[in-house]
Amino acid sequence: MRHITEISSKVEPVTFVEDELELSFRYWYGEHYGRFYAELRDNRRILGMRCEKCGSVLLPPRPYCGFCHAPLRTWVELSDKGAVDTFSIVHTPNAKELIETPYACAMIKLDGCDVPLYHLLGEVEFKDILTGMRVTAVWEEVRKGALRDIRYFRPSEQRSIRSD
Ligand SMILES: [Zn+2]
Q: Is residue 21 included in any domain, yes or no?
């Protein structure tokens, strides 16, 4: 019988194992996300929360203010209209992404909200997308209680904002 140090010095250690793991699970949204997604699905309403300490309006709803950490208790209905804060045109497909490339996505500041919402842009030519462009939510007819209950945001005004 050989000593263990003699054996281990002659083999390469296993440092990486590649495998696939299929998981089926149900995710509990909790109080805040549960109400947020139910309102999207049932009433086409976007709910946020107002901080009574610093006055910020946050999206999505959460138990504590992301700016001053005060507990949040005040629900507010947000507009489904806003302005493009930043945007990107995605050309590289993601293996898990169901959206056909290229597509436009944006951080959208809904009117009266202090936190931008990440979502898709639609019904617009990429060359016409600008920061500050006014957009309106386009809702799915059949909603499931998910952020994709909003299909995308489209320009509020159909005319181009560009001057060229
Ligand atoms: Zn606050």
A: no
Asked whether the whole model's pTM tops 0.90, one would answer no
In residues, how long is the chain?
164
Whether residue 37 has pLDDT greater than 50: yes
What is the Cα–Cα distance from 77 to 25, expressed in whole angstroms? 31
Instruction: Please tell me the distance between residue 63's alpha carbon and the centre of ligand 1 in angstroms.
Output: 11
What is the whole-number distance in angstroms between the Cα of residue 133 and the centre of ligand 1? 27
Strand-pair category, 57-58 with 74-78: unpaired
162 has pLDDT over 70 = no
* 50 C-alpha to ligand 1 centroid (Å): 8
**Could you give the CA distance from residue 124 to residue 160 in angstroms, rounded to a whole number?**
9
In a domain, 2, yes or no: no
- If one counts the domains in the chain, the total is 1
CA of 44 to the centre of ligand 1 (A): 26
Range of the domain at 131: 30-155
Q: Say how many Å lie between the CA of residue 56 and the centre of ligand 1.
A: 6
Q: What mean pLDDT comes out for the span 93-117? A: 91
